[in-house]
Design goal:
heterodimer, A: about 110 residues, mainly beta, 6-stranded mixed β-sheet, B: about 110 residues, 7-stranded mixed β-sheet, 4-stranded antiparallel β-sheet, 11 strands
Chain lengths: ~110, ~110
Amino acid sequence: AQSVTQLGSHVSVSEGALVLLRCNYSSSVPPYLFWYVQYPNQGLQLLLKYTSAATLVKGINGFEAEFKKSETSFHLTKPSAHMSDAAEYFCAVRSNTGNQFYFGTGTSLTVIP
Amino acid sequence: KAGVTQTPRYLIKTRGQQVTLSCSPISGHRSVSWYQQTPGQGLQFLFEYFSETQRNKGNFPGRFSGRQFSNSRSEMNVSTLELGDSALYLCASSLVGEENTEAFFGQGTRLTVV
């Protein structure tokens, strides 16, 4: 079975500080991993996705994530937080047998001015 | 290219009623999935349709059903509504046959059951 675990349901950072959102996956096969962001009363927007071509993945809005097989992790980072980054972030793994996604419980990011 | 369109955006229904939600996928996407999002349970997979056939199903009671039309548009139906069905229902469309394809989400339908 595939699953992801997000550590920390709430993260607060100061504007300009490093953002680190944690995600660990469980998969018996190479996983299809994703990070999505959700703003209030909106759907989910793709930030980035892991492809086997590179372990460091760059996404939109300055976010990136590093795939570490030895740690079964896919943490999301951004060097400098902006007020507009305040949102809910979801890590997800896609099924290998269809388009079913398994989501983590989400991390709410607060950016303090 | 237009995104995933869900209608309506908001709904208020009474317990015991039924409701139908609609989703129009991105042009060319033949896979449509539905998710329920609640504060307590998070994002939970309901079902996926591809070529008018249900391909995967989550762990939801039979009151939740769906279908897909030949133009890939999908509808989801919930019968005998319960208070616990209040949630944001998200539809997602995807390509099929490409490795590591992502899901594109609509803005959701906010269902409130009173």
